[in-house]
Amino acid sequence: MIATAVIGIVVLLLLLFLGMNIGLAMTMVGFIGYAFVVKFTAALGVLQNVPATQASTYSLTVIPLFILMGNFAFASGMSEGLYNTGNKWLNRLPGGLACATIAACAGFGAICGSTNATAATMGTIAIPEMRKYGYDDRLATGSVSVGGTLGIIIPPSTPMIVYGIIAELSIGRLFVAGIIPGIILAILLCVTVVVQVKLNPSLAKPGTRYSWAERFSSLKDLFWMAVLFIGVFYCMFSGIFTINEAASAGAFLAMVITAIKGRLNWNTFFSVMKDTVKTTAMTFLILIGAVIFGNFLAITRLPMTLAGAISAMDVSPYLVLFAIMLIYVVLGCFMDALPMMMLTVPIFLPIITGLGFDAIWFGVMIILVMQLGLITPPVGMNCYVISGIAKDVPLQTIFQGSLPFVFAILLALVICTAVPSLATYLPNVVYG
After folding, report:
1. What's the rounded Cα separation, in Å, for the pair 40 and 230?
2. What is the tens place of the pLDDT at every residue in 392-431?
3. Single pTM value for the model
4. From CA 71, how far away is CA 2, in angstroms rounded?
5. CA nearest 142: which of 206, 184, 180, 97?
6. Which residues contact 314 (CB under 8 A, 6 or more apart)?
7. By the 8 A CB rule, do 127 and 144 touch?
């Protein structure tokens, strides 16, 4: 049966490489594989029960609610204010507009939770601005592509929600755990921009200098984002709201802010709802497909066999951790974050906790590794998103622009491995 599982994985990767929808590919391979190993009627039972079970899972309702909050935040114009403030404060740095883009991505990620939405939103605003000031296409597109990945490390984060459900961990703890590593990574990405421009000044021309009065005046653009972020997360972390209630309140508050700013009308409302339904449907299709494919792998006992083989290795726990992280790096080049997490966490988490590592910390490490997959070929989802915005920029150029930032993400991984308390300190302070 192990051979059947390996064949199923190879077929799945082939379908993904050919461009088939990720959720449909996992559903099809999982269904056919389960029918082959067990029987056709059993596979039909899985196909009948899994979608209904996943769609009715209460803890998963937080995903569409945070997506709705992010869509209303975009409609309210918060992303434009974030970019304007970041530009005024960071423009004196070499490659200041690119640094401002990364900072704005970090800020928008704190009210969005989707890497693709963060990249698309900030790319629409930042790329035309950077090109207007003579920025090289590699730096302009690369900084937005990698900046968008901050949407899954800084809370709220859809992959963190899924990891928390799979690992049966507090989603609130996971959210808090991502804050310090997310800030460190954002700083490292900005440093990468500065180093690139210092080494090659032709990548970016010097920016406009703003007075301190203009800088402090721009902070007013952050007011509504601060109200939304602090209101939602204070209520959640203080225990006033559960995470689902906090997400509901956040979506409603974002809609109210959009109305206060005069940007809410029927067209905006229906557009936001339409985008939310589309993104939610795509996310749940991936989740359903991953569960069906996971059932197929479980029946072949491949996860248990692999876990046993790794556990039996008489080597340093950090060498096992390195091997697992390497597997994630390779898989990230071919798979989207959610299905990769759904398939691998049940296999690797028992091994990691058995070696004495913290499960919350491991979740942050997985998210960091997933960020690599979002900017590396052949999948590199964020690069494809930016390619759809900057249609005249070759995809190869976008990947080239993203490549220097790989080293920043790897350095963040090394730092978080050396100092695990960066991910565990805040959750212990907030939750005890």
Report:
1. 51
2. 888 889 999 999 999 999 999 999 999 999 999 999 888 8
3. 0.83
4. 43
5. 97
6. none
7. yes
